[in-house]
Design a protein that fits this description.
Length: 294
DNA sequence: CGATACCTGAGT
DNA sequence: ACTCAGGTATCG
């Protein structure tokens, strides 16, 4: 469910509820969310700690927990995978955990709760000491934290023979893009998903960098894309779905030119593309013109 | 590299 | 009964 704009939205919506609060209680009724780690160790690593801030890298969300007594700072690391949800339940609001899908929650000072819900059970919670945080996060460049431009993309992608679509999904090159925004960025850049990384020239790389930055910024402004499960930290839906130009639109008109969108399978994922805006392989192409949602 | 496994639910 | 879904770790 969540790619960079969704995870960043969850981060932003949780900040006002969590920062400065202390974790009082930790409940993990379904230990699978810890990926084999001990619920008792998890609870004792978190209990009593003050949440100093929330950060994000790629699709990972991190709660920064301040040093407690003599301890070192610790980080609660969350990955929502496909259907995970983190939500804040305010003090006094009814809290009714779904016995099947609410896998963990924390009671906070002030009476609120942070809950983790996940239908498909791919999502994970973990904790690491400060020294190990970087190693727990994706190594690729985060296009929002660090920016991307044409030269960076040429360096990262320009020597590889794999299809651009596969490369954009690799979190060790760029982190944060998933299937929705990889498809949308390629469409905005006028690049076919099967175009090789090495097929990029300077102009195409500039265009792709602008497309990535643009689609992420726009999606963020609408609090991300809710197709099914994704919700912000306040339980709201993201509103960017109506602006998607090709993702999920196979057989429907491209939102830039009206040509029917086609679908391909690349690296096990569906790639939606417009045959007119993104003509066959090869490199550079002029970007399609943006159009309002219909 | 791509394919497969991990899970559940929704839709056909 | 079968296909598909926002992701990624692990396999060959
Ligand atoms: Zn088009």
């Amino acid at each position: 469910m969540p790619e960079l704009p969704e995870v960043e939205t969850v981060r932003r919506t949780l900040v006002p509820h969590l920062v400065g609060r202390r974790i009082r209680t930790v409940s993990v009724p379904h230990a699978h969310v810890l990926g084999g780690a001990s619920p008792r160790a998890f609870a004792s690593a978190l209990r009593g700690r003050r949440i100093g801030g929330l950060s994000r890298r790629g699709k990972y969300l991190v709660l920064d927990l301040e040093a407690d007594g003599g301890g070192e700072p610790t980080h609660l690391v969350v990955h929502l995978r496909m259907t995970g949800r983190l939500a804040f339940v305010p003090a006094g609001a009814p809290f009714t955990p779904d016995p099947r899908h609410t896998h963990a929650w924390m009671g906070l000072s002030g009476g609120g709760r942070l809950t983790f819900h996940d239908v498909r059970k791919f999502g994970r919670l973990g904790w690491v000491g400060h020294a190990d945080l970087a190693g727990a996060l994706p190594s690729g460049r985060d296009p929002v934290l660090e920016g991307v431009d044409g030269p960076v993309l040429l360096r990262l992608l320009g020597t590889r023979r794999a299809p651009l679509k596969s490369l954009l999904l690799r979190q060790d090159l760029l982190c944060g893009l998933g299937n929705i925004y990889a498809n949308e960025a390629l469409h905005r850049a006028g690049l076919h998903p099967l175009c090789a990384g090495a097929g990029l020239d300077q102009a195409a790389a500039d265009g792709l960098a602008a497309a990535i930055g643009g689609v992420l910024a726009e999606a963020l402004a609408f609090q991300g894309t809710t197709l099914w499960d994704y919700r912000t930290g306040d339980g709201e839906r993201g509103g960017f779905g109506r602006f998607l130009r090709v993702y999920g639109r196979a057989g429907l008109p491209c939102r830039a030119c009206g040509t029917p969108v086609e679908a391909l399978r690349v690296a096990g994922r569906t790639s939606a593309f417009c045959p007119r805006c993104q003509p066959a392989a090869a490199g550079r192409r002029r970007p399609p013109v943006a159009v309002d949602a219909g």
